Amino acid sequence: MTEAQQVLNLIRGSLTLYSEKEQRIAKYILENPQLIIHKTINQVAEDLDIAEATVFRFCKRLGFKGFQAMKIALASEVVETIEDVHEEINEDDSPIEVTSKVFQSNIRAMERTREIQNEEAIKTVVDKLSTYKNVYFYGSGGSGVVAQDAQHKFIRLGIHAHAYTDSHMQLMSAAQLDENSITFFISHSGSNIDILDALEVAKEKGAFTVAITNYAKSPLSKAVDVALYTLSNETEYRTEALSSRIAELSIIDALHVNYHMQNLNDAKHAVDEMRRVISKKRL
Q1: C-beta atoms surrounding 118 within 10 Å
Q2: Rounded distance, CA 143 to CA 148, Å?
Q3: If residue 77 lies in a helix (H) or strand (E), which one and from where to where?
Q4: How far is CA 129 from CA 57, 222, 223, 273, in A?
């Protein structure tokens, strides 16, 4: 069990040590874990008739950066405790049955990821993209493919986008960053050493840092300025990282469209110019 999957155990283990208000929060979460993941910190505070700051401090006491990070970790735990028979692939399944279950796994990962998105975090990232227009994507393995897809999408909108998947190139590029750079670190586990090394350099250079990851208590999510989360679960024949890749791509798409909407004139000009030059490649 990972750190991000121990929220309920963390709460149960220290229940007798909490103050009166903290005990109310703890019992509320323990009794309503599936309900919590769909609520905002304001809604929880209103339900319990306590201050938002009290809820926030409780989440910090558990070891999270805040309510959103706690909620993401709780969502991962709740999802993994639910038996999902539709995603169980059996050895005697036909090819079309396997195909159907793979599609269903991806659909569920996207639905769960959509439900846990934080509007403030997305708005902050889009505002930074609109301000800096120099963006760097870092990813290794499957996440490297997502980084390359992100570069492709944002170049089309007139942003100076760069993707790095080689560990040495990641460090070399990070060394050239400054306070006018926005960086994305894409890692399902949030504990990839190469990505964390590049992140450390980016922070030293003053770049704005964003994580796209599955775990709210990972070293990556704890270190960045803003974290955007995916939510997927593992099956016997399919690791969670496979379906989370689809969710990561969807987050990139959402940022892409949000940026386009916020910068309509510049984006339209960039897209028109891109289409003009690419048209020369067609017969």
Answers
A1: 19
A2: 9
A3: helix 67-80
A4: 30, 21, 20, 20
Helix (H, G, I), strand (E, B) or coil at 158: coil
Residue closest to 159 by CA, chosen among 126, 193, 186: 126
pTM for the model? 0.76
CB-side neighbour CA atoms (13 Å) of 198: 32
Is 86 exposed, middle or buried, given 0-12, 13-18 or 19+ CB atoms closer than 10 A? exposed
- The 8 Å CB, 24+ separation contacts for 27-30 are 29/74
Quote the CA–CA distance of 206 and 255 in Å, as a whole number: 22
The whole-angstrom separation of Cα 137 and Cα 152 is: 11
Coil vs helix vs strand at 227? strand
CB 43 within 8 A of CB 67: no
Q: What is the mean pLDDT of residues 212-240?
A: 79
CA distances from 214 to 23, 94, 129, 245 (A): 28, 31, 22, 10
Distances, alpha carbon 251 to alpha carbons 28, 39, 70, 96, in Å: 30, 20, 20, 28
pLDDT one-digit tens code per residue, 180-224:
999 999 998 899 999 999 999 999 999 999 999 988 778 998 899
Amino acid occupying residue 24: R
Structural domains of the chain sorted by starting position, each given as residue range(s) with its CATH number in brackets: 3-80 (1.10.10.10), 119-274 (3.40.50.10490)
Is the CA virtual torsion 104, 107, 111, 113 positive or negative? positive
**Pairwise CA distance, residues 221 & 190, whole Å:** 7
In angstroms and rounded to an integer, the radius of gyration of the C-alpha atoms of the chain is 20
